[in-house]
Amino acid sequence: MQLPAFVDLRPIGRCNLSCPFCFGPRHEVPSMSWDTALDVVGVLRDGGVQGVVISGGEPTLLPYLADLAGELSRPLPSGRPPRVVLSTNGLAPLKTMHRILPHLSWIALPLESRDAGEHGLLRTGSPAPHRDRVLGLLREVRKNHRHVQVKLGTVVTRLNVKGAPRVLDLIDERSRPDVWKVYQMSETNYGADNRDWLSLGDEEFEDVVKECEAAAQEHEVPLRVYRNRTRTGSYFFIDPDCEIVVVDEGEERRIGNLFEKLADRTLRPAEVITPARNVENFAGTYPEPDDAPAL
Ligand code: SF4
To answer: pTM of the entire structure?
Structure first.
């Protein structure tokens, strides 16, 4: 069974933040067990998957995350290791991160605004100073884990239109990310609950994007933009309960349990994603180290 080239594995819904725009699985969903996660890794390897984004929820809350990243990063039969990306909110202690980082190709970290107040309105629920923790982790990765590339992500909502385009001002030259990706807030899961007061329309979002383009040029960081209207067909999520989730007409759609669909031979990836979009979305955001993204 050939799977999509790139997969988003969400083994946990639980999180230690409660961001109002969150489009991950509901936090109360039970996490994937280690045995099941190992079975999923086997399926991904057999299916020729070339890159995996581990997200959630907050994946660093999983006790087995370092082992999972280690299993995913083992070389494929071709001899080439898959690209393993960790999407984290950055709150995990450095001790935890030091066990995980050796297995990663990329880490995706969030910053929502240069303005601490705006950032705090969107990254809610933690007594720890979230923005400072992210910046500290970014410096640590740059200093001691140079093989790991960094994507900085900024979700644009009505609450951070002013400070979102200026997040790179917070980062010193030596710690600049390899890619900065600006996201239009997705109206799914918690984002759907809060869309009335938080979501930004297409035109307003494009105004923010123009400012981000200028800032990216100024700081010499390649910019990528995620627009809701081009989400369809890009993603193949595997949720904590092993349900496959795809994006159809901008909405998430559960298409069935991964293992059941493999057993009854009803999984046809090319019918539920658009392979070219799946590749463009992943490879455009997380290129190989020797394939530097264009400014
Ligand atoms: S957006 Fe990320 S950090 Fe925020 S609540 Fe959702 S999973 Fe947690």
So the answer is: 0.96
